[in-house]
Records
---
Amino acid sequence: MASRRFLQSFPKTPRRRKALVAMPFALIAVVTVVDVIAPPDVHLGPFLVAAPAVAASFTGPRMTAFVGAVAVLAQSLVAVARTSINDLNHTYQIIALILISVFVTFFAHLRERNEQAVSQLRSVAEAAQRVVLRPLPRRSGPLRIASVYLAAEAEAQIGGDLYAAARTTDGTRLIIGDVRGKGLSAIGEAASVLGAFHALSRQESQLPDLVAHLEASIALDENHTVHEGVDDDRDLAESFVTAAVLDIPDAATELHLVSCGHPPPLLLRAGEAKPLNVRAPAPPLGLTHLLVTEHRAQTFTFGVGDTLLLYTDGVIESRDRSGAFYPLPERAASRCGQGPDSLLESLCADLVRHAGGCLGDDAALVAIERLPASG
């Protein structure tokens, strides 16, 4: 599993870090030299406050305080060189510089403490997500698999996108889904679905039976939540999981698909991306109690060299600046023939460019390529 977060942060490489730290000192040097040689009625000392202010935006409180001290020293040297340290104008400039340096040093302390808290929350969120979203195997029988998870938020927002694969006696079963909502409730629902999928994949011989038991497990979990009094009835009525569950036999060049309100997978073949729309899709998991539902699997051809692309709605609902949705079928079709890893890497980069670097929702993609039986 790959997890990517798109942050607008300051460069963190050592070379760029040193370049940033050098900027306030360069500013101090330039202002000091120009102020000393400037005419008597020109005073550039107030520009020195920019040095600690700039430093506070990307360094810690110690470095900010040091930059402020250097700026105060520089202002003192200017005062001695031009008139006297006791000159009233320079005295007020020095006092103002000291006060501003103290203020921005305190600001740098608050910013550093907040960044540490966010970093800890992010680490907890990523750890929880790694536990729920187990890495998919790179190979499963004749299948080569790649997956990626794109998080929309830089902070500790945990999404409900999910995917998993399970090996059976004669093939591979996969699920991709999207839990309504975000946060801990979404990740708990995702963990419940994935736990049931892993537990039932080898027990149920028929794909519709597996999906029916997944639905039953969600209903059981919701009933337990009601008895515990954790959620109200309104939240439970709005709780559901869209999912696509697949069975891909090793020997037969086909796949079986049950769709529960999830976007159709794309079959990439010969430069085309064909959506696998099932004739009788079921409602999302968690909503079948509202109407009579019969889960049916539909069979599609999946031959050697074909690639199957699974995704969540965070991909196709991503918008550009004009409001246009991301054209996944067209972009995927133009990348036919690439391996699963290269395909996902290329699509993710293209998706982020389309969204202007900020996704509106979490997104997950899984690419499966069928290799020759001897491969």
---
Amino acid sequence: MKQEWYQQKWAVVARHILAWLIFFSLPYLLHPTNEKYEQDRLNEKHVWAMYMYFSYLVLVVFFYLNAWVLIPRLVYKKKFFDYILYIVGIFIFMCSMRYGFEKTFLKPHVIDIKPAILFTFFTFFFVLSASTAFQMIVDKMKLERQTSARENELLKTELSLLRSQVSPHFMFNVLNNMVALARKKSDVLEPSLIKLSSLMRYMLYEADEDKVPLQKETEYLQSYIDLQQQRFGKNVTILVSLETADSSYEIEPMLLIPFVENAFKHGTGMITDATIDIRLYTSSGMLFFSVRNRFNKDSSEIKDKTSGIGLTNVKRRLNLLYGDDYVLHIDKKDDWFIVSLQLNLH
């Protein structure tokens, strides 16, 4: 995955350098130039400058030592006592460093320890807080990115699995139809094979895409319905109206076929006046799709071991892919099984 420019290494390093430059320039920017006491105290400016540059270097080292070593190895592993010992030890080192500097490089004078320790403490505490917050935020963002990547990968895997579960259902029915036509030596076998070829081509080459043109999905549905019409003949009344006004609309591949397949599974057989009614049209960026089939409510026949998996899977796929951008109603009324789907195509 291509990183955004602000996530690239050079940008990260540049941000760190800029932050340190701003932080170390604050004492000079905020320093009152007319403060006589400070001018008297800093009569050896070049010596103090050397100390300041060295102390800045120590603070930078402490910042990254705390962020990259102490927090991951001690705080995250709940070794709090060891962490406190390290922090106290580093603070004592910084205080000792300042005391040793004044005793070694400056003219003999009375060292006021209290303000020196307070100044060192507040600087030390600020860097410690910034370092801890920095590392915890970075680690949290990293964890969120990893979690998001895992969720995306799981989503892709689950969708692939759901598609693979849907595909065999209607393929078994179509192949059974081909066998029946071959036995009858029917003249419609050749066009049926051509339709079957188009179905398989769609499954193999189109179904792996994230989205496909709605027109292709409706052509796929029509081919499937035509093959089923040949299979059942006059035993089932099939009413079909598939209209797509805008060719730019796209949809998740093989999303609608489970509804149609379910209608043929449970709307045929020992059913009086077996009828399947399939309607599809689009309007203002919305897809309206409905499938109705008569069913025998007194029949306890189980069509196959996978009966019911199709609708369960398609509900799951709708939730994963479209969230709140769809409305699905499934109802039984007056010996009719009715599925109605409204889907936002934008």
---
Amino acid sequence: MRFGPVPVAQAAGLIAAHSVRAGEAVVKKGRVIGPEDAARLAEAGVAEVIAVALEPGDVGEDAAAERLAAAVAGPGVAVEPPFTGRANLHASQGGLLVLDEGIIGAVNRIDEAVTLATLVPFKPVVPGEMVGTVKIIPYAVPGAVLDRALGVAAPAIRVAPYRLTRVAAISTLLPGLKASVVDKTLRTLDARLAPAGAGIVGEARVPHESGAVAHALRDAVERDGAELAVVFGASAIADRRDVIPAGIEAAGGIVDHLGMPVDPGNLLLLGRLRQATPQAVPVIGAPGCARSPKENGFDWVLQRLLAGLSVTRDDIVGFGVGGLLMEIVSRPQPRDGGESADDA
């Protein structure tokens, strides 16, 4: 691709690198300069224009953007028609945005002319939402550059649709915990589930005892057909031997991880039940901040599970980067030196 000043008499058929306005003559940036355009510019006293001439093997910006976008689009992602060197990718279904960051990084390292940007990984998206964009910086790229980009490209952007719809909510009770608090917690959970098309299929309020938790978990799966169970403790989980983890194990399940480098959300527990159904049923021991509608670590785990994605210990410990979220006004401020909150 050649770029630079060209006598206006020789500009016909080239691409205007910048918009030119002289009297009544107007040529917009990125447009092919026609013979009539060149004549009008000359009549208006324009001697030369900054223009682009494609060379053999060059691929125009729109064609290059469209081909690369198609190469990185995975299931649940649609490529929109390109314009001005840009091809946008949109979600064709609701779910979580799943990215292969290695491939995206490899594409961006090929050449400064080729760029690929996306939303943050695991963001909940709705149909029609833009999730990524390919932008070719110049008006064309050498075919060899595009070939190298396509060589490292693969479906790296997909939307994982929500799969789990039946959620059980179990609340443990202690003296002093008002029924209105539990009611509000359930309304908040219902609102979190709604975008995923999920809902509460079974609700139980039991004493804050491991045996009662175990019984409620078994009922949630065997009686209510729950695909996911959330346990809200009247008191925060402080140890793997505490009431909620002990209840999960008494129900035949296992505790996969306790604690999370996300604040608020530190005291989340993740486990699963292995009996009663062919597939393990995930169990979240919710941190106290899950009673609030504000974003916290509970959302990150809940959304992935609703989309049928696994959440491993490595996933959880990786949440630390970006895991310092906004304070919840209603809770104490442990980061400011105050007394540590019991509901993190």
